Amino acid sequence: MSRQLPIPFLTTEDCPRHEIFPGVWISTWWSERVMCSLVEMRPGAVVARHQHPHEQIGLVLAGRALFRVGDMEKELRAGDRYIIPSNVPHEVIASAEGLRALDVFHPPREEYQ
Fold first, then answer.
1. Domain residue extents for the chain
2. What is the average pLDDT value for the chain, to the nearest integer?
3. Is pTM beyond 0.85 here?
4. To 10 degrees, the CA torsion angle through 68, 72, 73, 79?
5. What phi and psi, each to the nearest 5 degrees, are found at residue 108?
6. Does the structure show a pLDDT above 90 at 57?
7. CA 82, CA 57: separation in Å to the nearest integer?
């Protein structure tokens, strides 16, 4: 069962924060059908290769990282966007400057609520 957040306005303190991989922190907020996640990766941190049934799109806010989605890879930097279809393996390796990004998931990921 998903936890309800106060709506329509939230503070940082209202949003759960999780360390999902060493040096990778997310802060999440969601509605019934969509979830946002503010991602912060320390320099050199790795989001290990994984996949999930959720669709995921995102925007790099600051820093740089190597994104691998399926059999494609590209270094992304601030302003770049990405799309990760449902069930496609992907991973992210932060540069020496780290990374800050906004992820959007559909449907919401219950394990991050």
1. 24-112
2. 95
3. yes
4. -90
5. -55, 145
6. yes
7. 6
What's residue 25's pLDDT? 98
Give the C-alpha separation, 95 to 70, whole Å. Answer: 20
Please say whether the beta carbons of 103 and 81 come within 8 A: no
Distance CA 98, CA 76 (A): 12
Spatial separation of the C-alpha atoms in residues 74 and 109, rounded to whole Å: 25
Tell me the CATH number of domain 24-112, given options 1.10.287.90, 3.90.190.20, 2.40.50.140, 2.60.120.10.
2.60.120.10
Give 25: exposed, middle or buried? Use CB within 10 Å, 0-12, 13-18, 19+.
Answer: middle
> Which phi and psi (to 5°) does residue 102 adopt?
-115, 120
